[in-house]
Amino acid sequence: MSALFTPQISIIVPVYNPPAPYLRECLDSICNQTLKDIEIILIDNGSIEDNPQILQDYAARDQRIKLIRFEENKGFSHACNTGISQSTSPYFQIVDSDDILSPHACQTELNILRKNHPDILVFNHCNYNCTTNKIEESPIYPQLQKNNVFKLNDDSSDLFMIPFCTWNKVYSKQFINAHHIQFHPQLTIAAPDCLFSAQAYVLAEKISYLPDYLYTYRYNVPNSIMSRIKAPKSNLYQQVFIFCQELEKFALRYSTPDKNKFLNKLYMEILLFNYSKIHSSNKRAYYHQMRKLLNSANPQFLVPEHLQCFNLLTQFNEIKQLPYWLYTLKHILFKHTPNKLKFGFFTIYKQKQKSTTTSHIFLSGLYRIDATQNATIHHLLGIKIFTHRQ
Predict the structure, then answer these.
(1) How far is Cα 262 from Cα 122, in angstroms, rounded to an integer?
(2) pTM of the full predicted structure?
């Protein structure tokens, strides 16, 4: 790289065995940016097959590329932290090695960065489904366009509707270093970018939103890293609970009540999303651990009223109160009809809250469960069969 070359944006690409055609398309989209003053940092995270040679070929013909190779996979977080530490530009962004950056992305980003000098720039993206070969554009959020620069508060709540990844953002390196924000080393697969983004959102004083579609995110990619967390008997889902514990510790130290409610939303959504995705062989264990986590969460962090704002309170209460078999049965029965399901003269329905007691399931007088703040009471044929104290 020429000594006279001054990169304006560093693009960090962690690479671990994406399909070779996707990797080439990703690298072409970066190398062919209309903005030439960029630094490209490729982190070969112990990749195999064609990937190492592809990376070496691109590095040999583009002097802007800095190639770093690990002989074994050290995880997404370590790769990103290495890329950030090696970057020399005022701003950096992270691109997944199977995604595509639009040709004018870096120039468009730089225009806003020079104008607003934000800590974080959030831009829009398209989703590409590799199974159906269809592209979907993400929504545009007019609420975020009211001000050129803002920080996290009620007026910027739409930020939490945008995916909590790093690939749809550009970060100020000075801001990240000043607050010592890093990717958590134990989060190699599950939500490492979500934790990084959440911490940055809370600490940022200047956030800009750009509605332009600058990125194409591929999902349902064959043999992706995320598929490993969905594998039978995989214990990688434990990283989800590490994420939740780390988010709580961070919030208790750095967040404020008005920002905390957004972190509560993220906390619950990460738990629910991964429960829906993991293999059925892990669901029982995951559910019990999730229930234990919610019941032991610090009340100064996890506030039920916050979840009510995002329609997550019902699921929060159900997980805290219902045994796994009943939670599973309920969601099977009410999958298509959330309030009532009929079997001949039998009717199963979900009752609304009555004072301090909520009847979750009522089976024509045969079975019901009542939950109060102190106990969960199960009734069969009108007889109280056992009480679970909270």
Answers:
(1) 17
(2) 0.82
